[in-house]
Write a structure and sequence with these properties.
The chain is an alpha/beta fold. It has helices at about 15-25, 30-40, 95-105, 125-145, 160-170, 180-185, 195-210, 230-240, 265-280, 305-310, 350-355, 365-370, 375, 380-390, 395-415, and strands spanning about 60-70, 90, 110-120, 145-155, 170-175, 220-225, 245-250, 290, 315-320, 325, 340, 345. β11 and β12 form a beta hairpin. α1 (about 15-25) packs antiparallel against α2, α8 runs parallel beside α9 and α9 runs parallel beside α15 (about 395-415).
Length: about 425
């Protein structure tokens, strides 16, 4: 990979690029083509100087925290091993149904809607998940809507009957596994701390994926300071038969022993390069796979406002706690200062959604000057708030890793031309 060649910093003027090329003669041919584009004014479109007006609030997706409990005790769990810092409880069916009603009403003219079943571990409340899907589909038909359901599961509670229902009714399924057995079982542990989570879930995941019939899914891992060679975990998951893979960096207090820290960045950058080479090496064979962060749409993709604002947390996408409280997203659940209302009352706090709407890349000074701003949309609001201290300041580690993943994605697309 070529560091720096794609950044605005080295392309602010023709003179800047000429100086860069003088120091990097092996890039002369491609560099002079870029220089021609710069001089003709064809490489960059004019930057926006201010954000567009705030969009109308139209809720299009809900995350239903149907279980504030879990049958695992993963060391890095952001949800405090499932209870989100409160009582261990399950969402009653009447709350889930009311959430469906709230979403249909709040979606206004929008037809396509999404509900994600989340936790904790949602399979601990499987009857409510199943009945909510059936109720949601019936109500959608009445109101001219279409629901896309997703469930995120650790797999412990999967049975053939549950797998069949998921494969028939869930648009997407996210399967949590961190890779090699020694990596997964080191940090994803049972309540007793005994037994192999890996050996329990792998055959269940393989069976479920085998019945997907081409429908979307992801095996989703987390890498920590303990497996900075995470490309090996991606390779292992691929060799188990999975071809849709995501591997996310843990975001944690830097004092935690498993936390990814600044001193790990060089190793992580090299590992993303290794993963890109693995991706290309397997691209045309039987072990071809998609890596979530390497899937970048260069020709179409989201509209400009979506690129500016990102996930839509706080106004397009909300989370519902088991008691019916509404939060900006699943990352804020359990924090009293971020309760927006309830599924019965609707959104009562009108100021907080505007805070999220205004937290777009054009209002973030660091992001405004970044070449990647229209791809990352300024990063995760919660991570920015917790680790940078402000919605309008990007979390530095996440920012650097995102830019590296984008660099790899562009390299892959260029290699496939």
């Amino acid at each position: 990979m070529i560091e720096g060649i794609c950044t605005n910093d080295c392309l602010k003027s023709s003179d800047d690029l000429k100086k860069y090329l003088a120091a990097e003669p092996q890039l002369a041919e491609i560099g002079h083509e870029i220089l021609d584009l710069v001089e003709e004014g064809l490489l960059f479109s004019p930057d926006l100087t201010e954000a567009p007006p705030r969009p109308e609030t139209v809720v299009k997706a809900l995350c239903l925290n149907v279980a504030h409990d879990c049958n695992l005790r993963c060391e890095y769990c952001f949800a405090s091993t499932g209870d989100f810092g409160g009582a261990r409880e399950l969402m009653p069916l009447e709350v889930a149904k009311k959430a469906v009603d709230f979403l249909i009403q709040g979606s206004k003219r929008r037809r396509q809607l999404e509900i994600d079943f989340f936790g904790g571990e949602p399979l601990l409340n499987w009857d409510v998940v199943r009945e909510t899907v059936l109720y949601g589909n019936a109500e959608a038909e009445k109101h001219g809507k279409v629901f896309r359901f997703t469930v995120t599961t650790n797999g412990i509670g999967l049975t053939p009957e549950i797998e069949d229902f998921i494969n028939e009714n869930m648009y997407n399924v996210v399967l949590s596994i961190d890779g090699r057995p020694e990596v997964n079982d080191k940090i994803r542990r049972t309540i007793s701390g005994k037994g192999s989570v890996y050996n329990t879930i792998v055959p269940k995941f393989q069976r479920l994926v085998g019945g997907r019939g081409g429908k979307s899914y992801y095996v989703r891992g987390t890498f920590t300071a303990r497996n900075l060679d995470f490309a090996s975990d991606v390779a292992h998951l691929n060799e188990l038969g999975f071809d849709q893979i995501s591997m996310e960096p843990v975001v944690a207090d830097p004092n935690e022993p498993y936390a990814v820290r600044k001193e790990h960045l060089d190793d992580i950058m090299a590992e993303y390069d290794r993963l890109a080479k693995l991706y290309l090496a397997r691209r045309t064979g039987e072990q071809a796979f998609d890596f979530f962060h390497f899937n970048v749409e260069l020709k179409k993709g989201p509209c400009l406002y979506k690129r500016l604002s990102g996930c839509g947390a706080g106004y397009e996408y909300l989370a519902v706690a088991p008691n019916g409280d509404l939060y900006p997203c699943h990352q804020f659940v359990g924090e009293e200062d971020y309760v927006l209302g309830t599924v019965w009352s609707g959104v009562l706090d009108q100021d907080l959604p505007n805070t999220f709407k205004d937290s777009n890349v054009l209002n973030k000074p660091i992001c405004r000057a970044c070449w990647a701003k229209y791809y990352c949309s300024g990063g995760c609001h919660k991570n920015n708030l917790v680790y940078a201290g402000d919605f309008l300041k990007p979390h530095e580690l996440s920012c650097k890793m995102e830019k590296k993943r984008l660099e790899c994605a562009f390299y892959i697309q260029a290699s496939l031309v």
